[in-house]
Each structure stands twice: as structure tokens, then as C-alpha cells.
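thought: fold this chain, then report.
action: predict
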Amino acid sequence: MLTRKNVKNLTNTEKEKFVNAVLKLKKAKSVIHHDNPKFSRYDDYVEIHMHAMMVESPTDPLTDPDWHPGWAHNGPSFFPWHREYLLQFEKDLQSVSEDETVFIPYWDWSDSESNPFTSDFLGSDGEPSSVGGPGKVMDGPFAFDGPNHWTIIVKDEDTDPDFLARGFGRRRDAPQLPTLVQIDRIMKITFYDSPVWKLASPGFRTAVEVPLHNLVHRWVNGTMMMMGSPNDPVFWLHHANVDRLWGDWQSIHPTTCPYLPSKGATQGHNLYDVIIFSDDMHHHTGFKKTRVVNVLNHILLGYRYESDPMDIVESFTKEIKIRDKISREKHKLQMFPSLQEIS
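observation:
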């Protein structure tokens, strides 16, 4: 089973593998724009995320009773959407690198030792700005002026910079990262989400998405403040930690429903809905269709987090083996119908 590790525990080899895989994906052929060499498979992921945000209602949610969330944010599917999104990205990293051991590490923002912003990994803060805003990242493998010439292709606006920008803690509304105290408080919430199933409806989902997830985007600043935030590779490490917290919450509350609602929310946000990554207005993503209900347990999807309790991992690993055995038996009966008579 694949293990996603904390940034602080990565070996130099693991860092190198992840960085090289991301760089290769940035050069791989686009699926969405297969006939345009300007775009890469990495750019596809940026565009998918951007479109997921663009379909959100442009009206004021406080005055519009018909306001609806996008495919990925401000609604119950926040966790499932990003879980499947990361899983597809991770598989593409493994494919381009021809290495099934490549994984997305997680950045535990509450731990000062969990620091991805080093010159040998994701690069550091952006240059100082005279107006206190974000600046260009000048070091690391994703610097525009570095040997890899990391260039932003998919942008919110055509006038946005071609380079990766950051501005750690420069915004007044995000002077510091989430603390362990904040996280512990949120982990005590005993229900996933609630009516009206959008924006800031009370529950664990909102408590993570708004005070924690949004805060980290603002703290990193720059490119991470855009709809095209996946242009900054730290996006993946940030969301791996968000995904990890959902799993932790499920472990803490084993008798609580891990997802709500089963119906009544905007399309794409109900338990049995297909997770939306594209529609008739947008291009094909290359993703296989999957439903919210199919991604509720990350261990059953074939990966674990370094921090997962081993008893829970072992329990679900046994379930995976049982499912595999049943699947093999069904396949055997389909291939050799006469076996049904023997059994």
C-alpha cells in the first residue's frame, strides 16, 4: 500500500522523485488540449480546478436563495472532489515517471518542522514587494528564472504573471498558519455537514474548508490565491493534508456518518452523485467517472497516511484482501461458467 509521508520525514530521494515527476508532467502531452503543444498534462489539472470554481454562482449567497457552489468548493463535495483529484494526479505522476512508488507528501501546517519551502524541494518565499504583496519565487526547481523555467500557462486573467509568486504571511487576514489548537477544536465536531448543504453550513466540512484550508491559501499568497492555484506545486501537499484530516476525523468518530447528504444538495454534492470534473461547456478531463460514495475511505482506495493508526490500516487492509479474493472468484466464474456447477 502506498504511504503518503509528512514533508519533514521525506528522504532526499523521495523529494527528488516527486519534483522530477511534477516536472515531467509539466512537459507531458495535454489531454484537454491534445492538439495544442502549448499546454501540458499538468496544465490540464490547473484548468480543471479553475473550471470547478468558475461554475459557482456569481451572485451574493447571502441574498440569492438559489445560489449554488462550484463542483469542488463551498459544498459537501469539497473533500471527495479533492480526494479523487489528488488521486488522479498521483497516478499521472507515477505514469510519467514509470515509478509506482511516487506519492504526494503532506504538509502539516501546524508543525513548524513540516516545511516544504526549501531550495531543494519546492523553493522558498517570493521576493519582497514594496507594497507588501507577493513576489516572484527565485529559487528551487519551480522558479521561472531557474533551469526548469517553470511557466504558468493557465491563468485567471491574461495579465497575470508567467512566474510562480508567493508572499508568506503578508496578508493581514492570514498572518500565520493554522495551529494544532485550532485543528483539535475542529476535530471535536461530531457531524460532517448540514442543511442548506452549501457555503458555510455548520459541520466538519465547513470548519476545515473555511478557517483552515482557505487560511493556508491566503498565507502562501500569490499564485495560491488564484483559481489556478494548482500552478503552485505546494497546492498538492496542502490538499494532501486536508485529505488526511478528513481521514483522521473519521477515525476519531467511527460511528458518525462520514459524509452528508445522501440527497438534497446541489448536483455533484450528494452521496451517490458522480463527482463533477467537466461538463458540456468544458473539455474532457481524462478522468474516469466515480461517485462520492466510492471515495469515502482513502485506505480502501489503496493509500494511507504516515500518521494513520496502524490498527485501522490493518483492519481495512484485511477488507481489501477479502474484496480482492471475492473479485477474483467472480472473475473465475465468469471465465469458466462450468465451475458454478462444481461449486
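thought: worth noting. The CA atoms of residues 299 and 313 lie 7 Å apart.
final: C-alpha cells above.
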